[in-house]
Amino acid sequence: MSGRLTTTQFRFLLTISDETKNKKDISHLQQLKTILDNTHDGMIVIDQDLTITIFNKSAEKMTSLSKEEAVGKSILEVMPNSQLPRVMDSGIEEVNQEQILANGTKIYTTRTPILNHQGRKLGAFAVFKDITEIVDLAEEVTNLKSIQTMLRSIIQSSEEAISVVDEEGKGIMINPAYTRLTGYTAEQVIGKPATTDISEGESIHMQVLKTRKPVRGARLRVGPNRKDVIVNVAPVIVDGLLKGSVGVIHDVSEIKGLTEELNRARQIIRTLEAKYSFEDIIGSSEEMSFAIDQAKLAASTPATVLLRGESGTGKELFAHAIHNASSRKFNKFIRVNCAALSESLLESELFGYEEGAFSGALRGGKRGLFEESNGGSIFLDEVGELSQNTQAKLLRVLQENEIRRVGGTKAIPINVRVIAATNVNLEKMIADGTFRQDLYYRLNRMPIYIPPLRARNNDILLLAYHLLQKLNQDYGRNIDYISKDAEDFLLAYHWPGNVRELENVLGRAIIHMSLTDSQINRSHISLLSIEPSKKKDVHLKDMSDTTDNEKSLAEQMDAVEKRILTEAIERFRGNKTKTAKSLGISLRNFYYKLEKYDLDEKLRK
User: Fold this and answer.
1) Cα separation, 435 vs 395, whole angstroms
2) CB 569 within 8 A of CB 599
3) What is the pTM of this model?
4) Which residue numbers delimit the Sigma-54 factor interaction domain (predicted)?
5) CA nearest neighbour of 417 among 500, 304, 317
6) Phi/psi at 412 (nearest 5 deg)?
7) What is the side-by-side order of every strand in the sheet holding 227-238?
8) Among 22-26, 33-37, 345-349, where is mean pLDDT lowest?
9) Tens of pLDDT along 510-539?
10) What's the DSSP call for residue 523?
């Protein structure tokens, strides 16, 4: 918008109010004034005295000044920072100069001196344009380009196969992952219909473009290799207008592989993870403190540990804590319940087997749990349930630090820390000939006795409140207190099931409580009976009165055990599982005792 006004035009402008001009000149000036007022560019004209003679409407708008405030006044008074006086003095035109007005408007201006034919300076004028909007638009375009570049980079680097089509269903973008999955290159897809890559099924892109709704989990086969895939496609809508759709393609075979791998990982975690530490063992009684100190000492050595105690006292908790406090804590921790598996299955699980060792054996054989736990710890719970044959193999592991797979001849060296646990009297089993004495000496190198709950009465309430927090999380409740009468009741009970029974009693109480209750009262644990401990004491007293004192200690113990078994069988009407559970022994041990005392006939009657 640069240029010079002719001298005649300028004189017309300066004499616009001169009534001596003829009507024709006035008409021309009116036309020029109309043009100037309607142009989108701002225009300011000053004369040689620096007085503003023209100030059009666009100038008013851009400067936020009215014509009345400007025309007839000095430019320096109205706009102190104006450069027009300088241009008039120098006589040199300045083109497309950036300037910021007093109101903050950013403009580009061209300033031109007004000269007559003789070069005499008659004034100057400026033509300027508001570029604020243009700058904002340019920044927006720049940002859009940056976003586009960023999105393209994301798509190209993504490991997910991605394809994008326009509103007509023609390919406009794919990424390298798409090429790896389908086998199609950009040249084969870009500009081609969305059905190009489909070998079986309908185009989900076309379905989405038609319905304008996303589709998830569609199964297709794509590419020349008929790859089985799952497709998620969504429409691209901008300001209500459909611009295309974008699809993400997943390889089904890869998903299956990842799922299987995840399941294997979960199994390993469940098997190998040692979840507890000594901080999780609750108890301040002298008996429990001694057991914890012994366990910590055991953790600092590589010695084999034998955990002894009644069922439910927390032997597995101690095993976890010992492993986590040892130098092996970053290696595997494998748990094995020796009573839960048959003899043949337990042997193959512990020591593994070679290919062809038995019918159904996996090709290539299988590593056993001792091999899997190499460098870590293995917890053998209910070790007293091992058969004589498995006991011999375990003894070899402890003596030689090596194992032989089932059906194998090669010795495999291992470095495993064995933590065993039992709730049975191993010494009596040795006397009975059901447990190897040499294995006992190997296992019993670092024995730790975990006291029953009735022997550490001071810990009952500590445990109760600790278990209460866990049960609140499990059941989504907020039970904060146990009433005094309920506490007294818990303290008076014998707890034959130990900590496991305490947790069961509290859990049952919470289940039967109202959702608004926040305190366990005596009535909530009314299912609990205090009679068993009293009955037990009387029962033992009666038996002691009838015991023949002339018999040996072993014979007297056998007589008492036989009587307890007989009464339990009658009480549960011959139900083996319930009888064994009530006595706190494994079903396998129960069968052994039936045979020992010739009580199997009683079950058949």
Assistant:
1) 12
2) yes
3) 0.47
4) 281-511
5) 304
6) -110, 115
7) 171-174, 161-166, 241-251, 227-238, 215-222, 198-200
8) 22-26
9) 888 888 888 998 888 865 444 444 444 444
10) G
Q: What torsion do the CA atoms of 139, 140, 144, 147 make, to the nearest 10 degrees?
A: 70
Return the residue matching tokens 């670092």.
Answer: 446
Distance of CA 77 to the CA centre of its chain: 69
| d(C-alpha 566, C-alpha 601), whole Å | 11
Sign of the four-CA dihedral 339, 341, 344, 349: negative
Between CA 556 and CA 548 the distance in angstroms is 7
> How many whole angstroms separate alpha carbon 75 and alpha carbon 586?
108
Give the C-alpha separation, 55 to 65, whole Å: 9
Residue 350 tokens, joined? 């512990």
Query: What average pLDDT does the segment 118-131 reach?
Result: 86
Tokens of 550: 């002339």
Helix (H, G, I), strand (E, B) or coil at 585: coil
Residues 6+ apart with CB under 8 A from 511: 475
Contact 184, 178 (CB under 8 A): yes
Q: Report how far residue 234's alpha carbon sits from residue 240's, in angstroms, rounded to the nearest whole number.
A: 14
Q: What ranges make up the beta strands (E) of 452-493?
A: 481-482
Q: How far, CA to CA in Å, does 273 sit from each of 428, 498, 559?
A: 34, 25, 43
Could you please report the per-residue DSSP string of 385-400?
G--HHHHHHHHHHHHH
> Residue 483: what residue type?
S
The three-state (H, E, C) secondary structure of 341-400, written as one string? CCHHHHHHHHHCECCCCCCCCCCCCECCHHHHCCCCEEEEECHHHCCHHHHHHHHHHHHH
